[in-house]
Amino acid sequence: MLVKHAKMIVDRDYMISRIDPRIYSSFIEHLGRAVYGGIYEPDHPMADEQGFRRDVLEKVREIGVPLVRYPGGNFVSGFNWEDSVGPREQRPKRLDLAWFTTESNAVGMHEFADWAKKAGSDVMYAINLGTRGPEQARDVVEYANHKGGSKFSDMRIANGRKDPIGIKVWCLGNEMDGPWQMGRKTAYEYGRIANESAKMMKWVDPDIELVASGSSSSEMPTFGDWELTMLNECYENIDYVSLHRYYGNPTADTPGFLARTMDLDAFIHTVVSICDAVKGKKHLKKTVNLSFDEWNVWYHSHEQDNEIWKQEKWGPALPLLEDVYNFEDALLVGSMLITFLRNADRVKIACMAQLVNVIAPIMTRNGGGCWAQTIFYPYMHASRYGRGTSLRVLVDSPKYDCSDYTDVPYIDATATVDDAGNVTVFCVNRDMQEDYVLDVDLRSFEKLTLSEHILLHHDDVKAVNTEANPMNVAPAAGPGGTVKDGRAEIRIPALSWNVIRFTRA
Ligand code: AHR
User: Fold this and answer.
1) What is the rounded CA–CA span in Å between residue 357 and residue 74?
2) Final residue of a structural domain among 385, 411, 439
3) Which pTM does this prediction carry?
4) Which of 103, 199, 239, 454 is the most buried (most CB within 10 A)?
């Protein structure tokens, strides 16, 4: 078989930034079976004393998810946080106009905070700036974070939680540019309400961090103008701008699909430029960074969801957005994670959307099993091994053209170094036919040995994992290679996700 070559220079002094571990965050929305039947199923044999599925918690901990965005998503734009606290039997059932579901509020703020603690995660809480405004934004921060002695903090204490929940990161609404959003706003209207909410929330708790809603996708007709206009109103009082991006595979063309990260990179750079333009124009010192708080592949379930809604609206926990991910989806997810690492100087938070059942790496069956989808693996690997510092590497790889992009490198790779000096290379081979030898120049490091090559590959790009066959697409030991005098030669199989770990000898 013909083997091609690609080259990579990894230099310890060429650092992009410390990696904020929160780039490995995720998202649980009151949507479909994410909460009910996902993280919470009190009748399940694996349920703990609070009704949380232990098998799901175990899988979440296996990934290592530092932060979980909650409770939406589109859901949050019609949500009253007060409905979700206090005695369960007194919580109202509400119609959720985002997903045409009835929300029981059986799981609310307190329960979710308990679940997150068990999962080893912090909570990123989104407030409703669709149907509500600054007053409720102020109240919910007081409820969650104030020590006591005021109406809402005392309400929390009366509801059984003496100490503040202590939520540090808050989203100022969700996708407020989208016509599908309850209480959609123009960029100016949103910028104003975000600013006034932000001021009041920080007056209650100056230690919180706030994420302003950017465009719901780079394909929105208002993208760019939205960021510029709303940041003009709220830049001084917010800390991050959100980006959301989901990729489909409309032409079912693998090379074109795997090239989508070219768009992701451009999206990030455009938003960075707009943030910095506003900073410059306002003569400010503060830098606003990015929270990529929804990202994933999402397309498999669209038709199924329309069928579900045709048959039944308002049912609780309808099985919505249950994408079954295949092997090529895992490769794109791997490339998306590589893109975040490459932009670690500005992307400080990123949430794979979502975590359980709803466009998720973890699936469950009600009353049944819990298994890892294909996309679980690159996410888990990046979260486990992509810690420390992101390095600015040079990659010289053959390139290809496809329907939407030109000069797409077949080898998409980056590297990180941890605090002990161990180097990890993450690499996707987009080539459908050819294996590569990746020549990695590591001479700037003290002696490194190849300790592990983890490989995710399947001969069928459409292969999936199911409850009956959960390890159909699963990591295995890769072919590895050699390291001599600071130069490594690693074999990278055609169409594969690779984690190559070099440890200090
Ligand atoms: O993650 C699913 C949905 O996608 C979210 O509710 C919304 O914010 C986005 O459009």
Assistant:
1) 17
2) 385
3) 0.97
4) 103
